[in-house]
Queue: 2 jobs
Job 1
Amino acid sequence: MSPNPLVGAVIVRDGEIIGEGFHAELGGLHAERAALADAARRGEDVAGATMYVTLEPCAHQGRQPPCSDAIIEADLGRVVIASDDPTTKAAGKGPEQMRAAGLRVDFADRRSERGPTVASGLAATPGIDPEIATDARLLNQPFRKHGMTGEPWVLLKTAMSLDGRTVTPEGASPWISGERSRELVHVWRGECDAIAVGIGTVLADDPLLTARLGEARQPVRVVFDSAARLPLDSQLLATLDEAPVTVIHGPDADPARLEALLAAGAETIAVGGATLAERVRPALVGLGRRGLTSLLLEGGATLAAAFAAAEQVDEARVFVAPLLLGGPMPDVPFAGLQGQPLESTAVGEDTLIRTRFKEW
C-alpha cells in the first residue's frame, strides 16, 4: 500500500449501502472508483446518492486517473469526507472541483476546509460525528506526516520488565516479551516501510530484521552506523535478496568501508551532526526522500534515546512483561517525552501500552 494512504468509500441511498470499495493495492483502483464499480456490479443507479470516503478525493493524475472526475461523471449528489489530504498535489483541489460541478461536499471536521471564505475553528458538519475525522487522521499518520514534512513517521517499539529493565541479565533468555508479542512485532515490520537499529545492536546480535510472518512485505533495514562498521559477513548483507539495507553514516566514515558496503549491495546515506541525536533529523530527511513513509525503531536504548532527544518519536508501543529482573536501574530511553495514551491491551502474558507523541 505505501506510499499511498488507507482509504475506503461507501455509497449510500436512503440509508442503504449500494456500493463500497477500498484501495487494495498500489496502482489499483482508488476507493472511490472501486465503490462506483461495485455499485455498477450490483446494478445500482448512483445518481444523487451520497459517498462517504476516508480521504478527500484526488483531482490529479497519478497511477490512477482523478477520482473527482469519476464522482462528477457518476452524478453523485453529495460527498462526505472524513479527513483532508495534506499533500500539496492534492490538498483542496478535489473538493473544489466537485463543488464547482454542483456537488455538495462536506468534511466531517470542518477545520479541514480550505479557501479564503473559510474561517478556522468551524463547528463540525451537522449530523456527522467529528471523531470520524480523528479516526481517519490517525489511520493515515505515515501518509500525512510524509506529505506534510517529507519525513517518515517514527514508531518506537520496546519491551521492559515491571521494574523497568529493557535488557535481561547475562546468561538469561534474550527475550523480555512473550511469544505472542514477538509475533505482533513481525506484523508491524511488514506494515512499515523501514526498520531501524543502531550498530551496537547489529554487532551484539547479528539480526535479520525481516518480517517473518506469512507473505509479509519486507521493510528496508536501516542501520545507524556513524563509522560504517557494519560487518561484511553480517546476516543483513547476506540476505540482501530478501530486503535492502541502508547504512546511515557520519561524514568521517572510512571511505574504504563505504566502498565495501556499496560493493556488497548496501545503500549509504551520509548525514552531519556531532552526536547521534543531531544526526536523527537529517537521516529522516534522507529516508523520506527515498519514499519511505514509516520507520519502526527497534534497536536498543541508545538509538531510542537519540530519537527521543531529537523529539522525533511519533508513537511508542511498549510491551510490559510480568517479570522482575532486578539489577542496576537502566536509563529510560524516552525520558522527558510527554504523550497521549491511546490504549492498553493484553498480548499473551504481556501488556501492550500505546502512546502518541505527535499527531499529523
Job 2
Amino acid sequence: MKKITFQPKGVCSRMMTIEVDDDNRVQNLEVIGGCHGNLQGIAALVKGMTTDEVISRLEGIRCGNKPTSCPDQLAQALKG
C-alpha cells in the first residue's frame, strides 16, 4: 500500500491523503478543509478505481472561475 500526502493549490482544501494499493487502485481518500460533504462523496466514488481512471475522469474540472478544483487537485496528486 502506498500513501500519498498532497497539499492542494488554488482550492479550499488544505491537505489530501490518498492510499493506493499494489494494483494501483484507490483504497482511501481523506481531505482536510474544503466542502466536506462533496469531498466525502468524491472519496466514496473513487474508492476502488484505478489511479488512471480517477485522473481521466477528474483532471481539468474547474471550480467556478478558478483554474482548478478539488477533483482536479486529486488528479494532480495521483499524477505526481
